[in-house]
Amino acid sequence: MGVEVVVEGLSKSFGPQTIWRDVTLTLPPGEISVLLGPSGTGKSVFLKSLVGLLKPEEGRVLIDGVDVCTCSEGDLYEVRKLFGVLFQDGALFGSMNLFDNIAFPLREHTRKSESDVRAVVLEKMEMVGLLGAEDKLPGEISGGMRKRAGLARALVLDPEIILFDEPDSGLDPVRTAYLNQLIVDLNAQIDATFLIVTHDIGTARTVPDNIGMLFRRNLVMFGPREVLLTSTEPVVEQFLNGRRQGPIGMSEEKDAGQAAAELAALRDGEAGVPHIVPQLDVTEGMPERSAVRRRQDRVMQRFGTLPEQAQQEIAKALSPRERARYFGDPTGSWPTGPVLAPQQVAQVTAPTPRPSPEPRAGARTPDAPPEEGARRRWFGRRRGGDR
């Protein structure tokens, strides 16, 4: 499974300009998360902070127990091996064919033989549907193919965390739909932790397990998709529905009174919370995404704390099998009486107790300081060797 990413109290500025402040969230391991926000809210800056390319003024980013904001260069080098990144334009070398582009990280960071490199590259190219295009140059293929080649390159070191910086940028709606399906299918196959920065509403509503929203230098919300999609938080609801009415203006700083008046007028014609758009499922023949079950369990653990209308929308969005699991009601109807009590949900979703595993070799022990644990974890590995 992928690695958990814990962000605590993160703040970033460029000179006197604050980009965002006190951002706190946890990317659950093995799940797909999306980060939204109007243009200029620092979403790409956030990605760069996760991999240690930018140093925040305050806060921590914990990757497998290592704080990338304060760790040594040697530890940071090792932590970055856990990441794969798909850049907006694919970031391919124009003078190299696709095979050599995808093989580049393997040749740079491992000691694999050329036969092993070829086997890995062809495997990843098959995963993204590029077999047969090995000899093509980036300038000879479409934007969608360049995105898939960039994704194949991000996968060759078998990362546990994959960052997508606006993967739909420059793609038409059809290619975006294909790319979204590819992302979901990949998550089912490798169970890595995915974080997608996007402006595409379709992607935000149908792909992720978790959604976060940056606005006016703050993280407005972050949580499971069911909670965000039924939220009546004005900025979240406005963005996810692509409406003009709400706090977001052309310059981002819409007058508060104007926004309130627009929302009041909008409410007059509506009732209830937004409906939950179905999540994109894996392609037939792919393994089931275990992330879905983990996320739903978290939602049901907090089910009783949500507004009643949100509870009803969440319950209606469940499949008969899921409904039977959480409510004992596979018929498809939502009861009009009291909802399931929080303690009952906790009993249903509680994981089966398992014996504690043996400590991982080199893992930080409870009494070891972070620096010592990090040294044991990273320097115990063979640098530059096969991963």
TrEMBL record:
Stretches the record annotates as Disordered: 321-387
ABC transporter domain ranges (all copies): 5-241
UniProt xrefs under SUPFAM superfamilies: P-loop containing nucleoside triphosphate hydrolases
InterPro entries linked to this entry: AAA+_ATPase, ABC_transporter-like_ATP-bd, ABC_transporter-like_CS, P-loop_NTPase
Keywords per UniProt: ATP-binding, Nucleotide-binding, Transport
Coiled coil regions in record: none
Keyword Secreted: no
UniProt feature, compositional bias: Basic residues: 376-387
GO molecular function: ATP binding
Pfam families assigned to the protein according to its UniProt record, in alphabetical order: ABC_tran
Protein name (record): ATP-binding cassette domain-containing protein
Organism listed in the record: Saccharopolyspora cebuensis
